[in-house]
Known about the structure:
Elements: H1 8-18, H2 20-30, E1 36-40, H3 47-54, E2 60-64, E3 69-74, H4 83-86, E4 90-92, H5 95-104, E5 111-114, H6 121-129, E6 135-140, H7 146-155, E7 161-165, E8 178-184, H8 206-225, E9 226-236, H9 245-254, E10 258-260, E11 269-270, E12 285-287, E13 296-303
Parallel strand pairs: 5-6, 5-8, 6-7, 8-9
Antiparallel strand pairs: 1-3, 1-4, 2-3, 9-13, 10-13, 11-12, 12-13
Amino acid sequence: MVNGSMNKAFVERWEKIYGVEQTKLxxxxxxxxxxxxxxxxxxxxSLIELKNRLMPxxxxxxALPQWNxxxxxxxxxxIVSSLEYLSGLxxxxxxxxxxxPLVLAPKSNSVVGDLSxxxxxxxxxxxxxxxxxxxxxxxxxxxxxxxALKSNITRMGVLNSIILHYDSTRLSKLxxxxxxxxxxxxxxxxxxxxxxxxxxxxxxxxxxxKHTRIQNTLLENAWMTLKDEGTLVYSVCSLEPEEGxxxxxxxxxxxxxxxxxxLPIEEGESREGLADIKPDLRNTRRFFPQxxxxxxxxALLQKG
Length: 304
């Protein structure tokens, strides 16, 4: 899949996993577009205050109260040109990016790691949950993505962050210990809307195995740096069970001390009833593509 095209091998694979009708819906929604969703920066402004600043200038919204966000229904000019955006009063993101930091819900004055941080939207949301206190280490391997990370952190007024240009697959080599970790892992990206997928080469089935190995290494390194009783969110924008349910299931085999916590959300589909996986997997969530969401998988783990 690349530049709006669909790989037949993945279609056939999804039909076997999810069924023909679900696959038809997946394809339809992967080809669709997302609404523009904005979320107030809780460090600077409330949802009501943000609406009261933007609506008199002609912007129209639909509320998403469960996510403290707004869908932009009409903009008299590009909202990213507004003073409110440029001064960091809100972020723009799909719910796919909004949900993992809210699920992790790091405590104030805690030590938090964002292991694949760029472009920084999730990092900024984590800082808001922490009330700009504690220590937030934003780790990014790719040098060319650091500028976007720095830009978003500066614009949003995040003061508790440290940017670390480092490969998180080697994280355990550093003397770091975290209370909370967000691991939005590199993946095959098969859940991404085609209009947003910037890859220049098409996805292949071989991508799944390559990414599962990287994800397992990242999980192992994250786990070694997580404090006892600490929590870790693992998420991937992939529709492939090997990168989601099966990945976490194998991780539980390697780490019986790990617990999968119930998620504080109702959205998404429970994995309860899936064959050949542990009962605790019922606490994870699988999201299929729909307006506002890419396809992704989400799990909340606790150590000890």
